[in-house]
Amino acid sequence: MSTRPLYLVDASLYVFRAFFSLPDTFTDAEGRPANAVYGFARFLCALLQETRPTHMAVAFDESLTTSYRNEIYPQYKANREKPPIELKQQFSRCRQVAEALGLPCFSHNSYEADDLIGTLGTQFRAHGFDLVIISADKDLTQLLRGSDIIWDYARGQMDIQGVTKKFGVTPAQMIDYLSLTGDAVDNIPGVPGIGPKTAASLLQHFDTLDEIYERLDEIPYLRIRGAKSLRDKLKRHRDDALLARELVTIACDVPLDVNTEDLLWQGPNMPVLEPMFDELRFGPILRRQCRELASGV
Fold it and tell me: Which residues sit opposite 7 in a β-bridge?
């Protein structure tokens, strides 16, 4: 772990996990669903207790349909079902809890959480921080450099060597890897017929997508399964690969006015949290955790 880490939390993943893992019997004082809020608060408290961070930020997605990527490709994420209304009602309260825990929160109607994480990470790396990205999203592995890690909380961590071991490419090659394979989760087309193993083999040989296209005539002679047909597939679907590259590239230049002091974690705001927990009908365990966090900062 870095001696000067910046923890960047991909909020949506853990909000969704909380909603689908906890029963709908968690309700607030007015009978509204609160299972996602409770699970997300529990996750954040556990993370804060384990890491005791100096700097941390939480990035939220505002919408599945207003990203600048939708302007480039209207079918972007069109295959995703809208979140249930019982979950949608809880997103703003999840952010309120995170803010009351003293965590700087970010969202943007044109950029996704990945872009906010990429921008904050790029800015803070210039100030000597290493990144600890709390997420399971493979797209975010493209950001890793040096001693950075991606950490799917409670499930495991990967550094840059771990990314290479798992995917067969370096984090710096992940954009081109996804450009070839596409990303079914986000409805991004790649090159049909090119899966993870073939994409990794091509990038191990050619290093970049641009070099693959500059040296297409060499591909039939490679010791890759189906090499003879690969050149034609790549040639026919060049526009798909280039579109995918544009869509999977995380924007690291979101206009955020942030300095290092803005991401200092100063502990939970108990005068705000206590009545909030009363309204949400949270029990004594979370309250005790928050008080311990507040007293230890």
Answer: 56, 132
- Asked if 57 and 8 count as a contact pair (C-beta separation under 8 A), the reply is yes
Q: Does domain 171-248 have CATH number 3.10.310.10?
A: no
Question: 179: which 2 tokens?
Answer: 């450009």
CA distance 72 to 56: 31
């995918």: which residue's tokens?
Answer: 244
Taking only the tens place, the pLDDT of each residue in 244-292 is: 999 999 999 999 999 999 999 999 999 999 999 999 999 899 999 999 9
Residue type, 240: D
pTM tops 0.90: yes
Give the N- to C-terminal CA distance of the chain in Å, as an integer.
Answer: 20
Beta strand 156-158 pairing with 149-152? antiparallel
Give the angle 98-248-186 at the CA atoms, nearest 5°: 75
* CA distances, 61 to each of 35, 157, 208, 271 (Å): 19, 23, 30, 27
- Summarize pLDDT for 114-128 with one digit per residue, the tens: 999 999 999 999 999
| Contact present, 52 and 73 (Cβ < 8 Å) | no
158 phi, psi to nearest 5 deg = -135, 135
Place of tokens 């005790």: 288
For the chain, residues classed under CATH 1.10.150.20 are: 171-248
Collapse the DSSP code of 149 into the 3-class scheme (helix H, G, I; strand E, B; otherwise coil) and give the result: strand
Q: Which two three-digit tokens encode residue 124?
A: 């803070």
Q: Rounded to whole angstroms, how far apart are CA atoms 250 and 119?
A: 9
CA 227 from chain centre, in angstroms, equals: 34
Q: Where in the chain is the domain with CATH 3.40.50.1010?
A: 5-161+251-296
Alpha carbon of residue 62 to chain centroid: 14
Rg from Cα positions in the chain:
21
Specify the CATH class of 5-161+251-296 in words: alpha beta
Look up residue 269 and give its DSSP letter.
-
